[in-house]
Amino acid sequence: MKASLVIQRGVAGAVPAIQTFVVEFEPGQSVLDGLRLVRRQDDPSLAFRYACINANACKECMMLIDGQIEYACKIKLKEGETRLAPLPKKALVRDLVTEIAPPEERLVRPAAKR
Amino acid sequence: MNPVKPLDLWMHIEADVLVIGAGGAGMYAAIEAARSGATVILADRSLIGRGGATVMAQMTVAVALGEQTEDHWENHLSDTLAAGRSLCDENLATILCEEGPARIREMDDWKVGWARENGHIKQAHAPGHDRPRCVYVDFLATGPAVSRTLRTQLHHFSAIRRIGDLMIVDIVVRDGQACGALALHVSSGEIVTLAAKSVVIATGGLTRLYRRNSASFNMSGDGYALALRAGAELIDMEFVQFFPIGHLAPRLVGMDPIMWDPFRYKLGGKLLNGQMQEFEETYAAQDARSDGAYVLTRDRATYAITKEVEAGRGSPAGGAYLSFMHIPPEEIRAAFGPVVDRLAENGIDLRHRPIEVAPIAHYHMGGVRVTPDFATNVPGLFACGEAVGGANGANRLSGNAITEALVFGARAGRSAAMHARDRTSQWSEDAAKPVRDLLAGAERREGPNLADAVARLQGVMADKVGAFRQAAPLQEALVEIDRMRLDLGEAPRAGCAPFDPELMDWLDLRNMLLVARSVTEAAISRTESRGAHQREDFPGMDEKWAVNQIVSLEGDRLALRQLAPGGGRRA
Ligand SMILES: Cc1cc2nc3c(=O)[nH]c(=O)nc-3n(C[C@H](O)[C@H](O)[C@H](O)COP(=O)(O)OP(=O)(O)OC[C@H]3O[C@@H](n4cnc5c(N)ncnc54)[C@H](O)[C@@H]3O)c2cc1C
Ligand code: FES
Are B542 and B528 in contact (CB under 8 A)? Predict the structure, then answer.
C-alpha cells in the first residue's frame, strides 16, 4: 500500500512550501513510521519531533494531521493523501517542529546582548 | 554546494552542577543536588522528563518494602547478585537494594500513586525474585507516573534550571578535571557552553544501537561516548539485555513492547513457530534452570526463537507467534482489563489471532565505571542511572532499573553537590575550543543518507553483535563499524538549521559508532557465555572469566583490561 504525505515545510517567517512524499506501508504503521521512512529514503533534512516511537508516552510528536491536532505515532498511515502541518498555535521552528516545551524550560536569546 | 552559516556561540551558562539527561536518574540527581545547596542546570536533548526510558516503562519497580510479605533488602541483594552471575559490583548492588525502600517511599510521599491493596502498597511477584517485591502504578502507568512526580518536584527548587532541546556534544575537561560541557541547542542550531564544578552523566542506555529495540530516539548511548572521550572508564559493555518476547507485529502503539511477559506468565500464552507448532519443548530438554511457570527461562526463550527463525520456521515478520487463542475470552478480559481496549485500537483481538514476538534489545547492564559515590576516575565527573555499569553484573532482574535510576540519581546528585562545594569554577574557553571547532566545522556536503546509516548500523549490531555471538561475525562487525566511521568523516555534516536532523544524525553516529565498537571489542574478548553475553563458539561459563572488562579510550583506539569484581564480600 502507498501513502502520500503532503507536508508543509519551512522556517518561521518564510512562505511555507508544500512537498509530497510517497511511502510504501503495511496496515497499522503510524504516520511517524512514514515520516521516519521519508528521512531514510528521500529527504533526511525533513524535521519533526519525536522520542518514544512506540509508547505514546513522550507526547512530542504532536502536529496537524488532516487538519486535526494529533500524535503522529498514534495515527495510522492510510492509502491516498494525508496532509501534515506544524501545530498552528505554537511558534514554528522548522517543518513540522514547533516550540512545545513549557516556556521556563526553553533557552531564549538574551535580548540586548547581540 | 551552499556553505552553511557557521554555528555561533550563542550563550554561556554557569552552575555548580550540570546534570546531563532528565530521566528518572537525572531528575533525582538534580533534586538531591539542589537539596544539598547547589545550583543546578538540568539539560536534556529532548524535553524534560520525556526523552528516555523512564517515561516509557510500564511495568514494575523492585524494592524490598516488606509490604506484601516479609522482606529484607538482603534478600533483594541475593537475587540481584544471583542474576548478575558473579559480575556485580557488590557495593553498587548493595546501595541499590538497601536504599531502594527510602526512594520508593519518598516517591510515595510525593504521591506517585503506587497501587495499593488492603491498605498497603501492593507488590507483585516477577521472575527472578524470591518473593513478591515489585511495586507499580496501574494500569501500566509506572514510568509516566514516576516521570510526572519527579517533574513536579523539580518545580519546588528555584536553584534548578531546566533546559530542553540541549544536546550535550562533549564534556569539557581541563587539566584532567571536568569543568563543564559544550552543547548544541537544537531548536536554534547554535552552540551553548555550560560551566559547572561537577558534571553528572544521566543519559540512559544504548539500545537504539540495535534494529529491534524498546528504545526512544535518544537512547544511542551518548553518555558512554561522552565518558570515554572525557577520559572516564566503562565497564561490562558486552552485556546488553535482550528481552525474549518483545512485541513485533502487528504494529502496536501506546503499549510497552515488553508488556506480553506478565500476561504470558499469568495465562500460559503459547509460543508457536511459523508453522503454528509449539517448539519450546524442543529446547527445554537442554534447560536446567526452568522455573516451572515458564517452560523456558528468558535466555533460552531468546535462543529458541532465534534458532527457529534461522531454521526458516519464523513467523512472517521474523519472530514467533504468541497465542492466547486457547484461553477462554472471559479469562483474557479479566487478566488484561482495559488493556484489551487499547489492543483493540491497534486492531488486535487475542481471541482470534496470535501476535508476533521477537527478542528485542531492552537494557544495558554495562556503562560508566563509578565508585560508591558515583564518581568516575575523572575528578568532577559523576554518572548515575542506566548510564552506570556494574550494579547488575551479567544480567539484570526485572524491576531493578527504575530503582537503580532513582537511588543512584539521588546519590550522584549529593556527591556532585559536595564536590562543587568550596570549589571555584575551572571553566576554560581553551579547553572547550576543540569541540567548539568541531561544531564550527559543520559543513553541507554530499554523502550517504545518515538516517539510513543509523539503520545500517542497527542491522550490523543485531546480526553480528546480537543475543548470540561468534568470533567471525563479531570481527566482521568491527570491520563494518570502522568503515562506517571512515565514511562519517571528521567534520560534522550539516543540513538546514535550526532543528537540523542531519547534524543530529551525524553527532549520534559519532557516538553510536564509538559505543558499538566498545560493545563489540568487549564481546570478542570474552570467550565464554555468561548471563546476557552468549557465545555460540564458547558455551558455558568459564571460572577464569569471573572478571569485569574495563574499556578506556587511548588516543583513538579502545583499550580493554580485566579486573576482579569490585566491592566484594566475595574474595
Ligand atoms: C520500554 C521500556 C520499558 C521498561 N520497563 C521497565 C520496568 O518496568 N521496570 C524497570 O525497572 N525498568 C524498566 N525499563 C528500564 C528503565 O526504564 C530504565 O533503565 C530507566 O528508566 C533509566 O533511567 P535513566 O534516568 O537512567 O535514563 P532515561 O530515562 O533513559 O533518561 C535519559 C535521558 O537522557 C537524555 N539524553 C541522552 N543523551 C543526551 C545528550 N547527549 N544530551 C542531553 N540529554 C541526553 C535523554 O533524552 C533522556 O531524557 C524499561 C525500559 C524501556 C525502554
Ligand atoms: S513519539 Fe512519543 S508520543 Fe508520539
Answer: yes
- The answer to whether residues B392 and B90 touch, using CB atoms and an 8 Å cutoff, is no
Task: Residue B401: name the closest of B38, B58, B42, B109 by CA.
Answer: B58
Q: Note whether residue A110 is domain-resident.
A: no
Strands A62-65 and A2-9: unpaired
Looking from the CA of residue A57, the nearest atom of ligand 2 is 3
Residue of A51, A104, A107 lying closest to B217 (CB–CB): A51
Which amino acid, B484? M
Q: What was the pLDDT predicted at B290?
A: 41
Q: For residues B346 and A55, what is the distance between their CA atoms, to the nearest angstrom?
A: 13
Q: Is residue A67 part of a domain?
A: yes
| pTM, to two decimals | 0.96
pLDDT tens for A81-90 read 999 999 999 9
Directed axis angle between helix B142-154 and helix B24-35, to 10°? 30
Pairing of strands A17-24, A2-9: antiparallel
A73 lines ligand 2 (CB under 6 A): yes
Catalytic site includes residue B298:
yes
CB under 8 Å, gap of 24 or more: what pairs does B100-104 form?
B100/B62, B100/B63, B100/B64, B100/B73, B100/B76, B100/B403, B100/B406, B100/B407, B101/B63, B101/B64, B101/B65, B101/B73, B103/B28, B103/B63, B103/B403, B103/B406, B103/B407, B103/B410, B104/B61, B104/B63, B104/B65, B104/B135, B104/B403, B104/B406
CATH number of the domain that residue A42 is part of: 3.10.20.30
- The cell numbers describing B25, all together, are 536518574
**Cα–Cα distance for residue pair B64/B53, rounded to 1 Å:** 23
The rounded distance, in Å, linking the Cα atoms of B100 and B6 is 47
B471 torsion bin: left (phi>0), alpha (psi -120 to 50), beta (else): alpha
Give CA B186 to chain center in angstroms. Answer: 23
- Identity of the residue numbered B457: L
- Give how far Cα B238 sits from Cα of B118, B120, B404, B558, Å: 44, 40, 20, 14
CB contact under 8 A, A53 and B217: yes
pLDDT digits (tens, 9 = 90+) for B70-109: 999 999 999 999 999 999 999 999 999 999 999 999 999 9
A81 lies in which domain range? 2-105
Q: Does ligand 2 come within 6 angstroms of the Cβ of A61?
A: yes
Q: What pLDDT, in 10s, does the model give residues B177-232?
A: 999 999 999 999 999 999 999 999 999 999 999 999 999 999 999 999 999 999 99
Give B218 Cα–ligand 1 centroid separation in angstroms. 9
CA-based nearest residue to A44, from B490, B446, B459, B213: B446
Q: Which of A59, A70, A75, A97 to mutate to test the pocket of ligand 2 (most atoms within 8 A of CB)?
A: A59
Q: How far is CA B100 from the centre of its chain?
A: 19
CB pairs A-B closer than 8 Å: 138
Here the ipTM equals 0.96
B17 contact partners, CB below 8 Å, separation of at least 6: B30, B33, B38, B39, B40, B41, B196, B197, B198, B199, B200, B413, B416, B417, B420
Closest CA to B378 of B160, B516, B206, B201: B201
Residue A51 within any structural domain of the chain: yes
Task: Tell me how many domains chain A contains.
Answer: 1
C-alpha B373, offset from chain centre: 20
**E-state strands within B316-399:** 320-323, 355-364, 367-368, 381-383
- Whether A55 maps to a domain, the answer reads yes
Residue B449 sits at the chain A interface (C-beta within 8 Å): yes
